[in-house]
Amino acid sequence: METDQNKSLMGTAVILTNGGLDTSDAKTAHGLIRGTERFKIVGVIDANSAGKDAGEILDGRHRNIPVYTDMDAYLAENKKKPDYAIIGLALCGGRLDNEWQAIVMGMLQRGVSIVNGMHMHLSEIPIFVETAQSNNVRIIDIRKAKPFDHLHFWSGRIYDMKIPRIAILGTDCALGKRTTSQLIVEICCSAQIKARMIYTGQTGWLQGNPYGFILDSTLNDFVSGELEDAIVCCEQESGPDLIIVEGQSALRNPLGPCGSEIILSGNTKGVILQHTPFRKFVGGGESLYCLLPDIETEIKLVEMYGARVIAVTLNGQGGTREEMYEYQKTLEKKIHIPVIIPLENTPVGLDRILPVIKKFIQDHGDLPDTTPRLHSRRKIIN
User: Which residues contact 351 (CB under 8 A, 6 or more apart)?
Assistant: First the structure.
């Protein structure tokens, strides 16, 4: 839900990636380059990619977002400093090391407000607070937990919600679940299907989505309630034809299993499952030999939770285009549901999702309710 604070955060912004723009760690930067309604992105600060267009680095599409070596280079070309500098990398453990702290301090000293999506809250470190105050700028820690009295506990209101919901889950972290969610919303809207996305991570908020919460900064007791409240508010205030819920991590990722809340507490009956066929181990679990789950058993696990996988989407990182096409064709024959490559403008691209979604919306009222509960919802709550 949009608050006064959310609305005040509009302005020009540069994205800080410190040499990592062309890596998977820059997924926040990549999301902002693809589009945001909260900020006007005027450049990226990244010495390794300087002189190029950020969109062309990302996916070959020119987006008129120049990449600069440093802030001096930006100011030499633009004269006017940006309102904000956004940390665009997902750093290990959500911590800013000494190098990053120096980058942030330099921005504050130049009179540029910082938007920080890390778990390390700069607004709680005196030296950063003092520097921001003396330069009349702000530190916005978007991963700060909500005040306790603003949190919602799960109530069961979700059972009264009628609008169909699809979760974009995955078999691992950093597979592009949010990107796929956003692309599906866009393609639905272009086909006159009014779709809304429930964001569950900081990039979704940065992109300007009005409904959602940041899951990994929410006390565990309230994750289900915050998810429910976001869906309820979206349905009641916006009344879309379809709600897309962004997934986080994966059901069987031992570093942070996640997804069952979206199915169970969100009473979500449709799932689009994002998978990467060329990644052997879960991200961050390579040294422990934590194998990536098999896609077919993951589909069965989703079904055991009471939802149905209506399509699989693929991330081709680590393989060739030819290998990706071959895998797509083989898997689709095996599982008998559409297997789609979202970032490809081909016969296997995201256009194929529309008939699947239209059928899901059409059939939604006839889907069996497999949620285990008593006949009266109120009996559970009371």
Answer: 187
Q: 7-23 burial string, b = 16+ CB within 10 Å, else e?
A: eebeebbbbbbbebbbe
- Provide CATH code, domain 4-141: 3.40.50.720
**71-87 exposure pattern, b = at least 16 Cβ within 10 A, e = fewer:** bebbeeeeeebbbbbbb
Helix (H, G, I), strand (E, B) or coil at 157: helix
- Distance, in Å, from the CA atom of 184 to the CA atom of 302, rounded to the nearest integer, reads 20
Q: Which of 207, 218, 270, 216 is nearest to 242 (CA)?
A: 270
Are the beta carbons of 360 and 241 closer than 8 angstroms?
no
Nearest-angstrom CA–CA distance, 328 and 323: 9
Residue 234 in 3-state DSSP?
helix
| Cα–Cα distance for residue pair 310/273, rounded to 1 Å | 8
Q: What is the pLDDT of residue 39?
A: 96
Largest CA distance in the chain: 67
Within the chain, how many helices (H) and strands (E) appear? 14, 13
Bridge partners, 270 (sequence order): 166, 308
How many of the other CB atoms lie within 10 Å of CB of 150?
10
Which pTM value belongs to this model?
A: 0.90
What are the boundaries of each domain within the chain? 4-141, 150-381
Q: Which CATH number is correct for 150-381, 2.60.120.760, 3.40.50.300, 3.30.559.10, 2.30.110.10?
A: 3.40.50.300
- Average pLDDT of span 220-243: 98
Rounded-to-integer distance, Cα 257 and Cα 251, Å? 5
The pLDDT of residue 1 is above 50? no
3-state secondary structure at position 283: coil
